[in-house]
Write a structure and sequence with these properties.
By secondary structure, the protein is α/β, with parallel strands linked by helices. The chain folds into 5 domains: 201 residues, Rossmann fold, CATH 3.40.50; 165 residues, P-loop containing nucleotide triphosphate hydrolases (Rossmann fold, 3-Layer(aba) Sandwich), CATH 3.40.50.300; 103 residues, Winged helix-like DNA-binding domain superfamily/Winged helix DNA-binding domain (Arc Repressor Mutant, subunit A, Orthogonal Bundle); 82 residues, HRDC domain (DNA polymerase, domain 1, Orthogonal Bundle); 103 residues, Arc Repressor Mutant, subunit A (Orthogonal Bundle). The protein is built from 33 helices and 17 strands. The strands form 4 sheets. A 7-stranded parallel β-sheet has the order 3-4-2-5-6-1-7, sandwiched between helices. Strands 8-13-12-9-11-10 form a 6-stranded parallel β-sheet, sandwiched between helices. A two-stranded antiparallel ribbon has the order 14-17. The protein starts with 7 loop residues before the first helix and ends with a helix.
Length: 731
């Protein structure tokens, strides 16, 4: 059949039942049918698969589709088989088949029944398969999830790297690369690796105007925040992404305990459970799936209404892909991410064991995520710029759909600073990444600056009137504005653009908005203590503080021994009016509630009645007791006078982790007698000196104690003494 004579609309109707193509589909299909190398970049949900399925069904011969995931292949094969009376129209060829099944596949291909053959890249390396495929007519080779070729893609697979050489063995067949996420860097990389610089490239818009983007600070109260959010969206489906399996399990448990129907989903569950949980979600038996990124590959649920990132992902591609699961039907989609720099540091730690090249790439991708979280400009504009797309943040579709646009930060004129910045990039010969450019501006030295003798140049320190944070924020905004660009070959190096050159010659106004500060102020040692978000009842707070002072005086102990500040804040937020409710407050356990709670609940009760307060009873987040096993273990073994280092080792904790657990135990009112351990490291006088300090002190903050003793004791000694003190005096 002559490709030019095919009535595509008729074939589209015949096979897929659609009357018209969506977006770029028709152009892509025409390009493939006429035998051109083709490269398609289309966001998830844009109808990418049809682009190669339709040509495969109408062209002579069999199309080979390379796909990374067996599960995905299976879904696709089932979908194609449902379009035709012929079972053999689509087949899978991978390691899961036995000899009989392989023979069946070959027979169907030879007889011309099979139009689509899905293979894993590894299968293509087998000689017998290559030999066989050389003997039949191949219409084209499609490489799905093509970003797996690029080391800069978020899902790099080494076996993909060799695909070009393998396809060459099949003779001169057209190639189709398809991906749902690709930055300009990855696009270039894919075309280079597949050796098809001449490919017709089709790129659909990455803008999803119905999605609302929001980033919040991740505090210790993140779970209550998520519960509150889900309860506000009652009856709607959503996905929560976490980085580790352990976290997935924990969060799913906490949600269940608090009356939200949720199931976990991660690669550690057996296939049966995974399939069951996935079906429950699709059938709406549960509202929420808590998952690692293993979830969602090929999940097509059109009415997911929110996607929450409990942990920030490793790259903006992953973030875009995961948030893209919301609102596929064009309806509401709320994308909420929790951000703390601590999480980023954790991810950096993971990278440190990897080969250097991989580390570099990983760091560069992480920096982009940080920039997205901290920026105060339109998040949509920032995201789309990352994918190489311009966006009008005033009149573009979905322009007001993010937290930064709805609650704008104040802008300041930065015209002169932009000129200073551009000149430094120019004068350092456009060789450096943002970090070095910022150091040159503020006048700090590192090894690179020293080696290149930048510290001897006249511009060194020319921006010292502002701090590093300011310059980083400015660079981000100048990049998006197009005055600077990032070089693709040497990723991350800042280059001047023509627009930037023109700006130096003729500066115009540049309004810069300040970045978000995500600093979670808290005492580093006490895990239970989370600062509330400032919504506590101020009047009640003052009364509780007074009462605490009075009670402390009566008992002759410092106020913090009774309840810590964060516990009071939480009381002023939740209004507990019984001892039972009080024991659910932050940092208060049963023991403490019984010992000190009565006057406090009496006061809150009176206050609630006098002021007609409606109590948010649903805000008392019940904990899952997941940690209680560990706490019990610690208590029992401290009683047995086991060495603390042995206890930590047995539970895979470091000393810091064990101390945090012990602090939680004593602060919520349980005794821990660790005298046997302290006696080994501090003599009586030393113990007495630290005990007296805590007795007199206004606060139990370790930083203050360190200052006070000025290097006489280290952090560990002081934390151990604080545990002993709280245990003896408060419990």
């Amino acid at each position: 059949m002559n490709p030019h004579e095919i009535d595509l609309h008729k074939e589209l109707k015949k096979y897929f039942g659609f009357n018209q193509f969506k977006g770029l589909q028709e152009q892509v299909v025409k390009s493939i049918i006429t035998g051109n190398n083709t490269f398609v970049i289309m966001p998830t949900g844009g109808g990418k698969s049809l682009c190669y399925q339709l040509p495969a069904l109408v062209l002579e011969g069999t199309a080979i589709v390379v796909s990374p995931l067996i599960a995905l292949m299976k879904n696709q094969v089932d979908a194609i088989r449902s379009l035709s009376s012929e079972q053999g129209i689509a087949h899978v060829l991978n390691s899961s088949l036995n000899k009989t099944e392989i023979a069946k596949v070959k027979k169907d291909i030879t007889s011309g029944i099979t139009k689509l053959l899905y293979v894993a890249p590894e299968s293509l390396t087998k000689e017998e398969y290559i030999e066989f495929l050389n003997s039949v007519k191949i219409s084209f080779v499609a490489i799905d999830e093509a970003h797996c070729i690029s080391e800069w893609g978020h899902d790099f697979r080494p076996e993909y790297r060799n695909l070009r050489n393998i396809v060459r063995l099949l003779g001169d067949v057209p190639m189709i690369g398809l991906t749902a996420t690709a930055t300009p860097k990855v696009q270039e990389d894919i075309l280079k690796n597949l050796d098809m610089p001449d490919a017709n490239t089709f790129k659909a818009s990455f803008n999803r105007p119905n999605l609302y983007y929001e980033v919040r600070t991740k505090t210790k109260n993140v779970e209550s925040d998520i519960i509150r959010f889900i309860k506000q969206h009652k009856g709607k489906s959503g996905v929560i992404y976490c980085l580790s399996r352990k976290k997935v399990e924990e969060i799913a448990q906490v949600l269940q305990v608090n009356g939200i129907s949720a199931v976990p989903y991660h690669a550690g569950l057996d296939a049966k459970t995974r399939a069951k949980h996935q079906d429950m979600f699709l059938m709406e038996d549960v509202e929420v799936v808590v998952a690692t990124i293993a979830f969602g590959m090929g999940i097509d649920k059109p009415d997911v209404r929110f996607v929450i990132h409990h942990d920030i992902p490793k790259s903006l591609e992953s973030y875009y892909q995961e948030t893209g699961r919301a609102g596929r039907d064009g309806g509401e989609g709320h994308c909420l991410a929790y951000y703390s720099y601590k999480d980023i540091e954790k991810l950096e730690k993971f990278l440190s064991g990897k080969p250097v090249a991989e580390q570099e790439i990983g760091f560069a991708l992480l920096q982009e995520v940080v920039a997205y979280a901290e920026t105060s400009m339109s998040r949509r504009k920032f995201l789309l710029h990352y994918f190489g797309e311009e966006f009008d943040d005033v009149n573009g579709e979905g322009a007001d759909m993010d937290d930064n646009v709805r609650n704008p930060k104040k802008k300041v004129e930065a015209q002169d600073q932009v000129v200073t910045l551009l000149k430094v990039v120019r004068d350092t010969k456009q060789l450096f990444k943002s970090k070095e450019v910022v150091l040159a501006l503020v006048g700090k030295v590192n090894a690179i600056i020293k080696a290149q003798k930048i510290d001897a140049q006249p511009y060194f320190g020319s921006g010292s009137g502002f701090d590093e944070k300011y310059w980083m924020a400015l660079i981000r905004q100048v990049l998006v504005d197009g005055l600077l660009t990032k070089d693709i070959e040497t990723y991350g190096v800042l280059k001047m653009s023509e627009k930037g050159e023109a700006f130096i010659k003729n500066p115009v106004s540049f309004m810069m908005s300040e970045d978000h500060e995500y600093n979670e102020e808290e005492d580093e040692a006490i895990v239970t203590a989370a600062k509330s978000s400032g919504t506590a009842d101020e009047a009640l707070m003052a009364m509780l503080r007074d009462l605490r002072k009075k009670e402390a005086k009566k008992l002759g102990v410092p106020p913090f021994v009774i309840f810590q500040d964060p516990s009071l804040e939480d009381m002023a937020l939740k209004y507990p009016i019984s001892i039972d409710e009080l024991s659910n407050v932050h940092g208060v356990g049963e023991g403490k509630a019984k010992k000190y709670g009565k006057p406090f609940v009496d006061l809150i009760n009176r206050y609630v009645e006098d002021n007609d307060i409606i109590r948010p009873d649903d805000l008392v987040v019940k904990s899952t007791g997941a940690n209680s096993g560990l706490k019990l273990y610690i208590i029992q073994n401290v009683d047995r006078k086991l060495g603390l280092d042995d206890i930590a080792k047995a539970k895979g904790l470091d000393m810091d982790g064990l101390l945090k657990e012990m602090e939680q135990i004593v602060y919520s009112g349980t005794k821990l007698n660790i005298r046997y351990w302290i006696d080994e490291i501090l003599d009586e006088d030393q113990q007495e000196e630290i005990h007296d300090y805590f007795m007199e002190s206004e606060s139990d903050n370790i930083k203050d104690a360190l200052k006070e003793f000025d290097g006489d004791y280290d952090i560990e000694e002081l934390r151990l003494m604080r545990i002993k003190f709280i245990s003896e005096v408060a419990n």
